[in-house]
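Closing statement on the fe (iii) ion sub-project.
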Amino acid sequence: QYILGIETSCDETAAAIIKNGREIVSNVVASQIESHKRFGGVVPEIASRHHVEQLTVVFDEAMKQANLDFKDLSAIAVTEGPGLVGALLTGINAAKALAFSQGLPLIGVHHIAGHIYANRLITEMHFPLLALVVSGGHTELVYMKEHASFEVIGETLDDAAGEAYDKVARTLGLPYPGGPHIDRLAHEGQASIDLPRAWLSEGSFDFSFSGLKSAVINTLHNAKQKGIELEAKDIAASFQASVIDVLVTKTAQAVDKYQVKQLLVAGGVAANKGLRTALENEFGKRDGFELVIPPLSLCTDNAAMIAAAGSILYEKGVRSNLALNANPGLELLPY
Ligand code: ATP
Ligand code: MG
Ligand code: FE
């Protein structure tokens, strides 16, 4: 079984082919970061235009690297949402055109289901499991009792973790995307500044990062008024310590409550060195428990993860028709 995956939900144009749900045959990603950098964030219109230009290039390359023909493919999986509507539409229309012209099944995939299924390219999934999704637009704890059964047990009430990283980085005058810069600075500084941790109500697995972001801005502002020079590296270290503390503590509580066998980590913020170390310290040596953190290239947006999720949906008989539309606010529900 070969599944072609297409992903265009944000600022990466990607195509990939996965064999039998777990083996990467080809995985091509064209990033647009350079085009968006000078605007300090992703500009939706520019993203759509780039996708239109890059889609055929990326798709051709994925087919060429795989050395496969259309007749070898079992289905085409494409990100249906959430994401930028114009960006999503470019990938969906390409996938529809290919599915129609080649007579192949079409499968709409939830972007976050894709991020979670990136883990299946590393290891087999053992249920029940928990996925910690930390990306540019999402911070969620997802419980899965079996394949394609997604239950969101906690999510951010405001900013996503990655969004908070990018906003704090911007405040510190660092380039977009700011996550990697804060991560680097955090390792040079000391977590010496007292910043809040949003625990929310007792037993809640929800998150909130906008208060932390405001606290960073206020701390900088107050220090400036008093003529105190705060070091960016210490702000970065203190901010990162707060984010990691909340993420790891809540995840540990959820792992205990749901008695899961695996913790899968997903999304761009999983690239964070401090978070990876903290997760390894907390979950790395538990008996009968597996912590899975994919390599960086599978944490950020790619199409291999969409094909991996698409493969399970294909086996489950999930199919979309040619009326498939972009759904920017698509909810993550059991398929
Ligand atoms: P979503 O999947 O929710 O739609 P997205 O696909 O745009 O969002 P990803 O590509 O998964 O998000 O991740 C991008 C985010 O990851 C950015 O906010 C970026 O700053 C953050 N990020 C990347 N590397 C690091 C790092 N080392 N530390 C912290 N954050 C990081
Ligand atoms: Mg991106
Ligand atoms: Fe993503």
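The mean pLDDT is 96. With this model delivered, the sub-project is considered complete and its resources will be redirected to Aim 3.
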